[in-house]
Every structure is written in C-alpha cells, then in structure tokens.
Amino acid sequence: MNHRHDGSSIDLERELVRYMVERRVSRRQLLEMMGAIGVTAALAPVVAACTSAGGTSPSPSAAAPTAAPSSAAPTATPEPTPLPSPEGELLIYNYAEYMDPEIIKQFETEHGVKVTETYFDSYDVMYPRILAGNSGFDLTFMTDTDVPGVVQQGLIEELDLSLIPNVKNLAAEWVDPEYDPGHKHSMPYMWWTTGLAYDTAKIKEDLTSLKALWDPRYNQHIMMLDDQREAFAAALIRLGKDVNTVDDADLDAALVLLKEQRPLVRVYSGDPIGTFKSGSIWVGQDWSGDIWTVQETRPSVKYVLPEEGGVRGSDAAVIPQGAPHPIAATLFINHLLDAQVSAKNTNTVYYMGPNAAAKEFINPDLLADPAVNPDKAVLDKLQELLDPGADLEKFAKRWTELRAGG
Q: What's the whole-model pTM score?
C-alpha cells in the first residue's frame, strides 16, 4: 500500500473525483464505461492528469489493472446548438411614445440590427393593415382582445420560444394567458386601465363619475378615445351593462347615449397624450399610463377610475404573417422581457409591464401610484374587453353611424 503522503494515492483519488465532476459522470456511469471500453481506456484521462500534474506515477499496486486495448473513446459532450443570427433589419409598427428609444439603440448595438419604428395614429389604422396580411412589418402590438381572432385567421406567426428565454421573467398571472395559452403566438407587453383624466386647474371639483364625459359645462373641452370598443364601453358601463354585450338593444341604447354626447366632444383622439398636452381638453377618457407623460407639461392633470367601473386591458407583441425579419423580431421580444430593459421601458412610457423580475428596477413612485398600478382588489372590479368575433361588426356599424353624425 502506498504511504498516505507519497502523492500518488491522493492525486489519483482527487483526479478521479475532479474528472467525474467535470464530465458529469456518476460512479455507475463510470463502471459502465469501464465495461464498454476497458478499464485502462476509461481511466486513462485520470492517470494522465496525475502524471502531468508533476506527481509521482502511481505504483503498480495503485495503478488500474491491465486490460486489452480498445480503439473506442468516450463520447464527447455535444456542443450546444448556436442561436440563429438575426437578419440585419427590424421593422416595428407601434404607437408613438410607446417604447423607450434607448432600448432600441441597445438592441441595435448588441445584435447589429438596424431598427426602424413606424407609428400609427390609432389602433383602427394598424389593425386593418394587419388583417390585410403581408403588412411588411416584423413586430407590432395588438390588444389581447384581438389575438385569438388573428391567430385563427393565420395572420400572426407562431413564436419560437427557444429564442425567448426571458419568458421566465413573467409574473405568474401572465404565464399562461387565456387569450393565447402557452404564448404560442404572442407575448405580453404592457397593461393598463381606462378611466377619467381631468385638469384640476380647469375643474375644481373632484370628478369620480363617467357622467363628467356628458357634462354640458365642459362643452368642446371633452375628449373621447378614437376606439370604438372603448367608447362603447364607457356608455355601456354608464347603463350598467356588460362591456362585451352583443345584444342589439344594449348596443342601440349605448349608441343613443353616445349620440347625446357627440355635440359636446371636441375630439375623438388616437393620440390622447398629444391632445391633452394641447391644453384644450379639460376632461377626457384616457388610458392610465398616459397621465405621467401628460403631467410632464400639464402637472395639474389627474387620473381616476370611475365609480361606476372601468376597463382593464393589455397589449401583446406579435409578429405579423409574412414578416421579412422574423428572427430579429423574436430576439427583440426576448430583449423586451429582460428585467432591466422592461423596467427602463416602464419608467419611460409609464405603463406597467407583465415582468415580475423588473419590479426591483422600476421607479418606486410609479409602482406606488394606484392610478397606474392599482392593487388586485381594484383590478378585479374592472371589466376586460373580449373578442366578440363576427359580432364586432355590430360595434363597427354603430361606430360609423356615430362618427358620420347620423
């Protein structure tokens, strides 16, 4: 037996353990390898490590028994499959002021991709373009309501989730959304509520009710969203109806209410931030995330959720059918889900994202603002707009009649 301190026995044992750890080989697997290729061949890397380390060669009693040489060698660990390289360009179709320009520049630098962002004036401009197919864009942002319909029509591409490892950052409530189980075709981007915004410098009383949007005292200083579902939702909530009703009597009653309001409305806006910043609007229907941006120039503007109730919703990132640069688009979705990137985006556009890992990097004042980040008890009382399917035409027909002044 070798002396405890002669170097050979300790080196062999140490190298054997190191070899098994580095190769992730269990003792059972090592024994199976010895049986398959011979003891000498199996332990040759261990013996070589002891010798090359400068120690004394193991004595015959410590060396492995001799076996017939074998030409076989241990199977090498396969190299991981490299990520595909993105195309050199990415074309994004988005609302203005709905993404931090710095995170786009960061993506360009890291991936060598030139990003071009084109803006649409309202959702009703973007959506038909996607429905027409072959939009020419690689990435856009669609309300969760519309995702099932465009999936059914084959108008958005299936996501390659192997290229989106940052999906692990999603909060639990966003992991498997009902509108797109398993995130097969979309990825949550930002969420919001729809309520009342008003200028406290112009209106001294506290507004709490949707009735303010029909108040003749604010004639020609009222804004409504240029969004048929949101506008009808306000009227339906006032009537105590479900915002997703497709009952003709309910929708007709909502249309009557909206027609009563129409002479008071200054604008149906697709750019509520810009419209509020103009100073001509005293009260309006608006999305929660817009208010912090508006307050940069009009700090007197306040946002509240109406006492009658409101709407909650979210936008999802989708890749339109036939996108010319799908890999770049997929990698950009992964970029958006990075914790620090997501937080930077929220800190700039003031909408809350679905990213749990981002919260530690988000402005604490924003997180604490109940207008932008209401607690679950408040959210549970709000209604979510759902896909009405073919019955969307019922809204569209009445919306056209309203806007035409009929």
A: 0.71
